[in-house]
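Technical note accompanying the year-one report. For the benefit of new consortium partners, we illustrate the data format agreed upon in the data management plan: each record pairs a sequence with a structure-token string. No post-processing was applied to the example shown here.
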Amino acid sequence: MRIDLHTHSTASDGTDSPAELVRNAAAAGLDVVALTDHDTTRGHAEAIAALRELSTGLTLVTGAELSCRLDGVSMHLLAYLFDPDEPALLAERELVRDDRVPRAKGMIAQLNELGVPVTWEQVARIAGDGSVGRPHIATALVELGVVPTVSDAFTEDWLANDGRAYVDKHETDPFEAIRLVKAAGGVTVFAHPGAAKRGQTVPEDSIAKLAEAGLDGIEVDHMDHDPATRERLRALAADVGLLTTGSSDYHGSRKTCVLGEYTTDPEIYGEITRRATGAFPVPGAGGRRA
């Protein structure tokens, strides 16, 4: 089985619509794909509808990537198979999403002070109906010729954590996020915890404390982790009893990664689905539930 548990659509900062994402996942030969847009589940219904039109064995895992902050360090928490209508978790996601627009406008103002003529209208056009985020601003910088690629915008010169144009947004305490996701029947995995090129990372002793609080796993096999980082994270997971996942973090044409570039072991996926009680994986019309 080929299982990719971290992808994005136009519901947040990907370039594939949720329906296109499902079709592309099937074409890429995936058996399981998780849709994990930033702080939103708005793409789930379209993705499920597209899946049911396909004669494929692809299975869809519904989820979201939650914006968190621990001791001043930004981190992302992948949440899988939770009840999207559970009131407390829904209210927290809406609080995070509502802060995205003023944060983006603040970053645009910072860029303007740095001499970059980016506008809110340009960024809003790029974001479309998606939850506006840094990748949309990075795309605007590419359009203006400020940087050659989206990835090149995520440096200290521009949009990286603590970069010259960085602006904080509301982010959930991860211990609270874990509690909220668990209460909604979901499973939690710390996304790309060793992605040091994005900025400061959460210390390993804090990951151990998150494990004690109910964190289910960490994303180990990821494009932003070099081999040494993967080895270190795998050892840490074994020490503190965490599941280890692998994912593409696919964003369509906005990033260079491809669907299925990194995958999750079927036994780990099975354990994730066993732990979840808030929702179930959605099987395609041509297959049974994976």
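Partners are asked to follow this layout when depositing records. The mean pLDDT is 95.
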